[in-house]
């Protein structure tokens, strides 16, 4: 378990302080934990490990369906390009990571359209502010 996941486990434990937190920040790799927590409605790390993360599958080459996986990513990136948006390697990387941290219905082979800005409409826990809103920071 990484440092960010360990912190989340402790913060959500008995007497944890997450109930008093309005925002949660993830920097670079820490944004994986922050994003996973936010996208999956505030599940505890142990539940994320059981229900979302698949640590046995390679992040870049996800096993038997890797041809379809890369074809799906290429189609998503091309669709963005065709709409006139610039594309870069982070588009591909982000979609690959999303396959490991987002709920099943928002992965690359289904409907990869979950964003930070639409979290309140997709994740019920944001309606009553029962989980903190994520702030994602990337260092280049």
What features would you describe in this structure?
The chain is mainly alpha-helical and 140 residues long. It has one domain. It is 44% helix and 7% strand. The chain has 6 helices and 2 strands, in the order αβαααααβ. Strands 1-2 form a two-stranded parallel ribbon. The longest helix has 17 residues. The protein is globular and about 45 Å long. The relative contact order is 0.19.
Task: Please outline the helices and strands.
Layout: H1 3-12, E1 23-27, H2 30-39, H3 45-51, H4 66-82, H5 89-101, H6 119-122, E2 133-137
Parallel strand pairs: 1-2
Summarize the structure.
This protein is mostly helical and 140 residues long. The chain contains 6 helices and 2 strands, in the order αβαααααβ.
- Spatially, the strands of the biggest sheet line up as 1-2
Rg from C-alpha positions? 16 Å
Q: Identify the overall geometry.
A: globular
Name the structural class: mainly alpha
Number of strands: 2
Order of helices and strands: HEHHHHHE
Please give the count of helices: 6
**Beta-strand content bin:** 5-15%
N- to C-terminal distance: 25 Å
Give the biggest beta sheet.
2 strands, parallel
Q: Structurally, how many domains make up the residues?
A: 1
């Amino acid at each position: 378990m990484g440092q960010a996941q360990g912190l989340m486990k402790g913060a959500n434990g008995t007497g944890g302080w997450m109930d008093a937190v309005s925002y949660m920040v993830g920097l670079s790799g820490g944004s994986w934990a922050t994003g996973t927590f936010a996208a999956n409605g505030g599940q505890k790390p142990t539940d994320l490990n059981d229900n979302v993360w698949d640590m046995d599958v390679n992040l870049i080459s996800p096993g038997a369906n890797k041809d379809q996986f890369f074809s799906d990513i290429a189609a998503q990136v091309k669709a963005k390009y065709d709409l006139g948006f610039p594309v870069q390697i982070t588009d591909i990387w982000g979609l690959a990571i999303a396959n490991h941290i987002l709920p099943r219905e928002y992965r690359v082979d289904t409907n990869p359209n979950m964003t930070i800005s639409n979290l309140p409409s997709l994740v019920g826990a944001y309606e009553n502010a029962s989980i903190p809103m994520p702030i994602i920071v990337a260092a280049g």
